[in-house]
Each structure stands twice: as C-alpha cells, then as structure tokens.
Amino acid sequence: MAAFVPVAVTPSVTRATAASVSASRAYGTWAPAPVVAARVAPAAPTMTFEAGVFEHTNPYAAELKETANYIARNGRGILASDESNSTTGKRLAMVNLENTETNRRRWRELLYTAPDLGQYISGCIMFEETLFQSTGDGKQFVDVLNEQGIKPGIKVDTGLTALPRTKNETATTGLDGLPERCARYYAQGARFAKWRAVMRIGKEDGAPSDAAIIENTHALARYAQISQAAGLVPIVEPEILMDGDHDIETTAYYTERVLSYTFRALNEFNVCLDAALLKPNMVNPGNDCPTKVSAEEVAKYTIQTMMRGVPGAMPGIHFLSGGMSDAEATANLQLLNTLEEGKRAAFAWNFSYGRALQIAVLKLWAGDDAKKDEAQALLTQLARANSMAQQGKFSGAHPSPGGAERNWQPLRLV
C-alpha cells in the first residue's frame, strides 16, 4: 500500500485533481502523489507591438486614439461611399449611367464637394480607386475631404467568397498583402480603414454556423491588428443581414453571439479598443418577417444587445443602414440617443450610412450636372437629419423624397 504523501495543490494541478484530493481526505483515504510536469513558459509572441504596451510601442498610438474620438464625436457621422466598382456600376445603372471610371469619379466628386457636408460628417469611407482619384480640376479627393474636416478612410477587404462546407455562408477576403496596402493607403492620406464581415440568419439550416462566425471574426481581428500597426483606425463591421423571415429576438440573439466572438478575437490579437470603432447592424427582424415591430422595439433590442456585447472602451458604435429606409434609419438613430436605456452607454450611438445617404441623391442627380447643386443640397440635408438624430434633436419631415422606401438589396459575392 502506498505511503501517505501530502499533496500540495499548485497552479499546475487541475481543478479536477484538486477536487479528487479533497474528496480523498474527506473520506479518510490517501492517493499517491501525482506526478506533475513542470509548465514551460511559452515563447514571447512576435508582433508589431507587444501586448499590453500599445501606447508605448506603437508609434501611431496617440494619433489612432485621436482619430477614433474625432470620428465618433457628437453630431457627426460617417459617409460610407466604399462600394466596389461592380456595386457602383449597379447603382449607376439605376439612373441609366454607364459604369465607367469617369462616371464613378463624377458621382464621388458630387458627394465629396457638397457644401457644408463637414458640419455633419466626420469621416468618409472610400474604395481604393476613389482614394487615389481627383476632382475634374485636379484636386485630390483626400484633400477635398480634409479641407471640410472629414477624415478619409479606406475599405481594405477585397469582397466575399463562399465558405466551403457551409450552406451558402460567406467569408471575407483581403488579408494577403494587407500590411503593404495599409502602408500605401496611409501614405495617400487615409486615416482609418474598414473591413466588412457578412453573416446571414437561416432558421432551417442554423446559419450563422460556428464555422462562419469563427472565420469571420478571426479575419476582423487580424485585419484590425494589421490596420493599427499601419496607423489606420480599424472600423470593425460584423453585419447580420436583414435577409430572411426571422423575428427580432432571433436577430438579437445572433447579433449578441457574433459580438461576443468578435471582441474575444480582438482581445486575442491585442487590438486596442479605444483606437478602433464598431460598425454593426441595428437589431431588426428579417425583411420578410410577418410580425412588424415599432422603432421603439428596434431601439430597445439594439441598445440591450450592444450594452451586453460592446466594451465601454470603444469610442463609438457607427451603425450601418443595412437596407433600412432613409426615414427609418434616422428615426431609429434618434431613439438610440433619446431612450433612457441608451444614456448609460460609455460609447457614442452614431451612424455610418451608405444607401440611406446616397440613393435619393443619386436618383435626383441621375448624371445631369444641371441638377448637381440640388443633389448636393439634398445630401447635406440628409447628413444634417442624421446628425440631429445622433444628438436626439431631429424633428419635422424627413428630407428624403422616398424616405419610407426600404433600400434593401440581395447579397452578392463581389
């Protein structure tokens, strides 16, 4: 019979071992001393800056935090104009314009040169082609934006691809060569970046699958790490699509689940949260859900989900419009900033709208430069409406001519 040997429970002994030892003592029996192998300290990770000392070793640390707070400040939002050439072509086709480099440039020039836009917009996300373009008279777009007090930003992902062995789920591409591209974008004048991950809800097939969530949140975190190392504030965009007939509770559940995985991954990759921004969906039911909900319900579920899932270190949450109508996007934003539940948040409730700021303007302009001034005035009015909503001060009729019409579009792998 083995002799009694006192067992010292050290950090290397598992909880199960400790429990077994305690039970043995309680019943008056003694086990042989376990053989515990010495734990070897892991090698220090190799990365651009060491974990925990971001402010000391990342040369862009102070600038990154300043930029994030500048973009998230009260009464300002983001103009998302980062559509790919393919998507822009589909937008131009709505008004019978050919998808050429000249027409894409004319359209973006109309947006960026709108008078007084900088009073309501603090950042503008651009596509790669657009970042390097100039106005018709030769002024670079980044300079046009900076003169209005609008920080230039850049979409750095390269689009969606099918995720193998899943049921029509997607992953986002673009990590290859990203450090070099980010360095080039910073040199051109970009000061923040954006990466979009897309997940859908499928009641019958269980989407989003764990594989889709893990793949997409890992890519978001790796992108954010690379972006900060290059001096660009990362906008992290985990989007749950409105496609489907699921109810609002289902959207809330999966949005919270995805946020949990997102911030877990960001922490694992040592991303500094107070030098980053979040661009999620609001919590809406599926586009085909038979049960309609009020704006108050959307706001309450959105606040609940974000308060549970987003750390207070993040300066701002910039919601995407995600197919909501122009008026709907403004009304929901207003409620996020006026309901008592939302006032406890440490972060700003803000906007990063694309379709909700652009579609009505595009339809008014339709390529006719005689209508350019009128179209620009409409853009500024739409930006002002959302700026006021972000402050909880919007009132009166919505400026969008088709404000109640939803801007939903099907998902495309481009």
TrEMBL record:
Catalytic activity: beta-D-fructose 1,6-bisphosphate = D-glyceraldehyde 3-phosphate + dihydroxyacetone phosphate
UniProt KW Lyase keyword: yes
Spans annotated as Disordered: 390-414
SUPFAM superfamilies xrefs: Aldolase
EC primary class: lyase
Family classification: Belongs to the class I fructose-bisphosphate aldolase family.
PANTHER family, sorted: FRUCTOSE-BISPHOSPHATE ALDOLASE
Name recorded for this polypeptide: fructose-bisphosphate aldolase
